[in-house]
User: What shape does this take?
Amino acid sequence: MSSVAVVILNWNGKGLMQRYLPQVIQNTPKTVDIVVADNASTDGSLEMLASDFQEVKTIILDKNYGFAGGYNRAVAQLQHDYVVLLNSDVAPDAGWIEPLIALMDADDTIAACAPKILDDKDHTRFEYAGAAGGFLDRYCYPFCRGRVMDDIETDSGQYNENTDTLWVSGAALMIRRKEYLENGGLDEDFFAHMEEIDLCWRLRNKGRRIVACGESRVFHLGGATLSSTNPQKTYLNFRNNLSMLIKNYNTGSWWLVLWCRLMLDGVAGMKYLFTLKPKFCWAIIRAHWNVFFHFRGILRKRKILKNSRLRQLPPEIRRYSMLWRSIVDGRKTFGEFEKK
Assistant: This one.
């Protein structure tokens, strides 16, 4: 039987762990190790774990390495076949992990998988960040089965089948530990946001499969670290999205796609400006400047990955524009998006 560790990264999240760890423990088999990797918390998290959750193992890091760096250091210390990156604000449903393990055990072409992610505030609706598995449009904007733009669907069983996707959310991501490490783990230059999309894209470019598992579900609070009202989240999302485009886009047309993206991002910035949200416009400008100043370094990463990339775009990068189909055509659901 494959060995599995559920790894929860924590930084000053004592309250979240007190709220969510009991359900993680209750709904996870005893054969699965539950590990908290602590990013040098100062809120008494470790003392609380030692007192109230003695069955939980801990990995203590010497400083806050962010989402990417924290997980990289934690996974490197483990010896399990599979690791699950689980956010500290996630409540797994009963029987959540068994379908994920069975899926990975049955097919060694699958590098990573994830459950359906529903909103912990409303268990009938998908959660924004990952929903039921993610894709990219032709300009590398991410969207999900169950969430397109800001339109979030109700879960009526429409995504209960297992489906190949380009990426799955890092809120509840099961991955083969060996492949995680061999492929460099999460890109620490991202610090937080979209690093799991980047990792999944790298794996997909090597011909590995990423699967959304419809038989499993978890409930995610979301926004516990940075809410959508924080301009820093906008900055990280725009910066990291451009970085992963440059790193991973398979074909020689990546320059044209990048140019189009810069123009579209500019339109988004103007929208923020006209709606009296100048801090968000400035966040996009900062993101573009950061990518410009680090462009050579990102290109070096692209060259390193060149020999491990497929020579064509994976089908999970759709050839249509999400913005066009949403704003111009008025399509609101993933099912409508997929119709020609």
